[in-house]
Amino acid sequence: MSQFTEVIKTITDETPNIIMIKNYQGQFEFANQTLSKLYNTTPENMIGKSDSDFNPNKEQTDFYLKNIQDIMDLNELQTVYEESTDVTTKEIRYYQSLKKPFLDSKGNKNILVLANDITSIHNERLKTEEKEAMLNLALEIIGEGVWDWDLTTNMVRHNQQWCDMFYIDDSKLEHDLGFFSSLLHHDDAQRVFESIQDTLKTNKPYVSQHRIICANGDIRWVEDRGKVIKFDNDNMPLRMIGCVRDITDTVNLRSKEILLEKQSRLATLGEMIGNIAHQWRQPLSMITTMASTVSLYNTMKTLDENTTHEAMDGIIKQAEYLSNTINDFRNFIKNDRDKQNFHILSMIQKCLSIANASLSKYYIELILDIKDDALCNGFESEILQAFLNILNNAKDVLVSNIENELSRFIFIETHIVGQMIEIKIKDNAGGVPEDILDKVFKPYFTTKQDSDGTGLGLHMCKQIIEDSFGKVKVQNEEFVYQDTKYKGAVFTLSFPIIDAIFINSDME
Questions:
Q1: Is the N or C terminus of the chain more exposed, i.e. has fewer CB atoms within 10 Å?
Q2: Over the range 22-61, which residues count as b (16 or more CB within 10 Å of their CB) and which as e?
Q3: 38: Cβ–Cβ under 8 A, 6 or more apart, which residues?
Q4: 371 CB contacts (<8 Å, ≥6 apart)?
Q5: Is the pTM of this model over 0.70?
Q6: What is the pLDDT of residues 135-169, one digit of tens each?
Q7: What is the CATH number of the domain that holds 90?
């Protein structure tokens, strides 16, 4: 063997790629070490034999023979993707094979094959395809459509679920961006594209809630999310993918909830105005009486300085009381969504200044046990509304369940537990039926007649309290008060504290 031939043999045997030469009958004219290892033999032993002498997979060997003969007949260089079985491990290996036909010195058809093992690439691609298939299945199950936007061609591809969501023909599984634009509701289109452009400029995630006009004419609300996943060398976006889900039912439900919340709030405001009117009768009567007394004494020429001062002081005090009531009412109705620090005791006092008249009207005795106060942070006016709603519920159930007007009680207690302050509101109306105890905070659940409640009162209370990082729960409790045994519902409101104030004294 010449030195040149020895060099060539060394190169072909050391390369990780398969190198072989076959004749038209598929017999090996040359084979390197890599191929012989695959077939668990030696290069020398392969000469004059074919694949079927080593590889038991007939489907593979039949393909090899037909394929090389077709290429030799066409006399064209071709790249072929094929597979072969490792005789030792029985593992299927995958190859990208470059096949070049040529004539030997005698004019016989031969073919040179250079095969690159791409098994690892193939397996990774299979894993990726499997993951994509599982993702598409998951998105299909949860009802999400997928989009893939190629910014270089302006074409958008989708999964089947996307077409099904909007009753669009399968022919639109791939379309240009103009088709997407035609689906947008005209009131939303500009906002959607502004959001997309912002994502392309800043690389922030794209999120949009807008309306889509379906092929059947329906209008659906969707939540659309996406992200740029590919950039060029200048960091310009090339590809953006995302998913879309139908939120029509959620939007409609929320619109209904907002309307019912407004109705519930108006009903509460109406009751409060009635309470204030009742609460103002006595102070206004006293002001009228004191003013009439001053006027009468003046007419009789018996008005002295002391009487005048006493009357004026009394009128000023009653006016201040009326003013404070108005301030408490303003605190309740203002739509202030800024969190602020507030004292629990002050909030309770404001609530009671509004509710006392209504409680007195129905002969409900209020028993206060304010052990602790605390500085908290939250939406005070909304928490005031929640507190008043719970008080009104207690009042209503007492009036409904307790006929004896001298035995209607509401207990309010505060105490600090760890880093929270608890406010307990308890009545003696018999408690909540056990079968509905776990439902009282659910939306639209009510035990009142259809005309008397929306079912949003306690649900709103829970939302308001949780918005201020608080908690609320309800349970039934049996207790003794003034030597008499009672049962009632206990609502416990808990709020994180900024600063604790230990009082250990009762409010009057």
A1: C
A2: bbeebebbbbbbbbbebbebebeebeeebbeebbebeebb
A3: 18, 84, 86, 87, 93
A4: 413, 414, 415, 416, 502, 503, 504
A5: no
A6: 566 555 556 888 999 999 999 998 888 898 899 99
A7: 3.30.450.20
In degrees rounded to 5, what are phi and psi of residue 485?
A: -90, 130
Tokens, residue 30: 């040359």
Domain closes at, from 219, 246, 273: 246
Q: For residue 465, give every residue at least 6 positions away whose Cβ sits within 8 Å of its Cβ, in sequence order, or none.
A: 383, 386, 471, 472, 493, 495
Q: What tokens appear for 188 in the block?
A: 């939303």
| Whole-number Å distance between alpha carbons of 155 and 177 | 6
Helix H or strand E encompassing 401: helix 380-401
3-state secondary structure of 266: helix
Instruction: In whole angstroms, give the CA distance from residue 114 to residue 258.
Output: 71
DSSP 101-161: EEE-TTS-EEEEEEEEE-HHHHHHHHHHHHHHHHHHHHHHHTTEEEEEEETTTTEEEE-HH
Range of the domain at 132: 124-246
pLDDT in tens, 189-217: 999 999 999 999 999 999 999 999 999 99
How many Å apart are CA 78 and CA 71, to the nearest integer? 7
Average pLDDT, the chain: 85
Alpha carbon distance 67, 81 (integer Å): 11
* Residue 508 falls inside a structural domain: no
Let me know: does 139 contact 165? Beta carbons within 8 Å. no
Q: In what order do the strands lie in the sheet with 144-150?
A: 174-176, 155-158, 144-150, 237-246, 219-231, 206-213
The encoded tokens of residue 172 equal: 């639109």
Residues 325 and 421 in one domain: yes
Residue 149 makes CB contacts below 8 A (sequence gap 6+) with: 155, 156, 177, 226, 239, 240, 241
